[in-house]
Design a protein that fits this description.
With 60 residues, this protein is of the alpha+beta class. Helices cover 25% and strands 25% of the residues.
Length: 60
């Protein structure tokens, strides 16, 4: 997963997980595969997304 938490948008390297700040006041998350299935995360991927959410939450 790539880390773009210093911006208002984060996307996993395969594009299945997207997190962004909308209009500076809310956090949006989209996490589905191309087949519209739930995304499976490893422990490290889950920790990285948790950190992105923490950083975004401190900014909204």
């Amino acid at each position: 997963m790539q880390n773009l938490a210093n911006e208002d948008y984060f996307e996993s390297c395969d594009g299945t997980v997207r997190v962004w700040i909308e209009q500076g006041s809310s956090i949006h998350i989209k996490a589905v595969t191309k087949e519209n299935d739930p995304v499976e995360l490893s422990e490290s991927e889950a920790m990285q997304i948790a950190e992105v959410l923490r950083q975004f939450a401190s900014r909204v």
